[in-house]
Amino acid sequence: MSGAEEEGWDEGAPERLYVVTGGRSRAGTESVRLDLVTLIVSRDVPQPGMPPEQTALLRMCHYPLSVAEISAYLVLPVSTVAVLLTDLLADGRMEARAPIPAAALPDAELLKAVMHGLQNL
Amino acid sequence: MDYRISDQLPGTGMPGDRPGDRVPGPRSEDALPASTTSAVKVVIVGGFGVGKTTLVGSVSEIRPLTTEETMTQAGVGVDDIAGVERKTETTVAMDFGRISINEQLVLYLFGTPGQERFWFLWNGLFEGALGALVLIDTRRLEVSFDVVGRLEDRGVPFVVVVNAFPEAPVHPMEDLRTALDLPESVPMVDCDARDRGSCRDALLTLMRYLHTLTTAPANAIPEPQ
């Protein structure tokens, strides 16, 4: 764990995240619920004058990328990434591909596909 | 020893660690095919230094990445950073990797500590997860008791993976099963977290177990052993 050793790293302080998200602390309730493994794909190219985070997101997701990967590459918390994605998804500039829906138990065909894929490793 | 212990590297993933100032994003060879439509996840749960990141790194097709979330030191109000006083926030990291299953499907592996307070940080970490690998170190079995109980409470199917540390004492599986108070139905498997094939087999054990659960009658009474 990277624990409480935060001294000297001001970029990660809450104030910065607050600025990045335009003052919002969580994604709007009307937005798509984003899982760590929701795949995000760009549907548009960056426009002049866009905030740098939006530009980075549109560039980065030329090919599908999970929310977790976006968080890792931008070095931003997942909750902050979710707020940033909300606007781009609402504008149709990006597309979200939801994970396989949660069920009590996964589908047998899905498991067979995963087993087949693992055997090819 | 080449075990990578993410937990001991608080600097990993921070901006200063990245060489140069290039555009963030995956290397082109790490891009998923455009045809990828959906993702599934498996959670690797284990105590500090038990080998979660090593396991993820062994099977992942990408170099393991680190996602982070902020939490207050009191561990409450994690969703709401508004109005929180300076320096009460802590960044908590979680390593993960990825395996492309086919042109449409991708599997993500998340390594998380055993403490439940971390699970709440990543909203829905276990929600929709296929299942979990509980990674244990026989030298510190006591840290795994609670993990097993918490997953049972949440109804998350899991298999127990014994990371074969070279210097760890070897215990018969049945002794470990008794010590962890595990039902007979829960598979246990030996694994070398540094070995790709061994980690793949552990994941396959989980998938086979899940497959037996999905095909078993819902109200089946477990066979007496």
UniProtKB/TrEMBL annotation, chain A:
It comes from the Bacteria. PANTHER family: DUF742 DOMAIN-CONTAINING PROTEIN. InterPro entries: DUF742. Pfam families: DUF742. This is DUF742 domain-containing protein.
